[in-house]
Amino acid sequence: MSTPTPAPDPRLRSNKLLWIAGALIVVAVLSNALFFVKVPGQHLLPWLNLVLFALPLVLVIAGLRRTIAEPRIYRGRTASWLLAGLSGVLFAFSVFALYVSRNIPDASSAPQVGQTAPDFTLPDTAGKPVALHDLLLLPIANGAPPKAVLLVFYRGYW
Predict the structure, then answer these.
(1) Residues near 22 by Cβ (< 8 Å), separated by ≥ 6?
(2) What pLDDT does 3 receive?
(3) Higher local confidence (pLDDT), 128 or 56
(4) Tens digits of per-residue pLDDT, 115-146?
(5) Angle, helices 45-69/77-102, rounded to nearest 10 degrees
(6) Cβ atoms 125, 152 nearer than 8 A
(7) Three-state DSSP state, 11
(8) Which of 24, 94, 30 is nearest to 63 (CA)?
(9) 23 — alpha (psi -120 to 50), left (phi > 0) or beta?
(10) How far apart are CA 6 and CA 25, in angstroms?
(11) By C-alpha distance, which of 68, 79, 66, 34 is closest to 52?
């Protein structure tokens, strides 16, 4: 006969550090939406994001130490390992994203809205080369030359 598994001890306390860390992880993930909003001090957002992912990692490690050191008092050993892994991965990704974002070239030489685009030649959908100045000189349906050309940039095929 198999022995029945003992019922969990009702006196076990919840590890509040893990709950706080879990809530901070959600806040850190949601904070990424701030990158798409123009706010004062936006240059500090990557560092804020890094701190928001590091703080839960510290809390999870403290909670993990607590559940390992005193398993008869605190529950949540599995949750603490899962949160530790999730926090570690998200923190590593945040550090990687911060490093990569520092290597993005400056867009100061890119054309600004309303500025005249530099002349260029690109192939059209049939492979025939088309120059920007040709598009501005070719007459449209009523015989008048166009006043502007709309440039659409897309990423293409994946």
Answers:
(1) 56, 83
(2) 65
(3) 128
(4) 777 888 988 889 999 888 888 887 777 777 77
(5) 160
(6) no
(7) coil
(8) 24
(9) alpha
(10) 33
(11) 34
Q: Is 86 exposed, middle or buried (0-12, 13-18, 19+ CB in 10 A)?
A: middle
DSSP string for 16-80: HHHHHHHHHHHHHHHGGGGGGS--TTGGGHHHHHHHHHHHHHHHHHHHHHHHHH-TTTB--HHHH
Instruction: Please give the single-letter amino acid code of residue 102.
Output: R
The top-scoring range by mean pLDDT among 20-24, 57-61, 62-66, 125-129 is 125-129
Structure tokens that stand for 154 in this block: 């897309």
Token readout for 97 is: 């994203």
Query: Cβ(121)–Cβ(128) under 8 Å?
Result: no
pTM, whole model, 2 decimals?
A: 0.52
User: How far apart, in whole angstroms, are the C-alpha atoms of residue 42 and residue 106?
Assistant: 16
Q: Where are the domains of the chain?
A: 16-102, 115-152
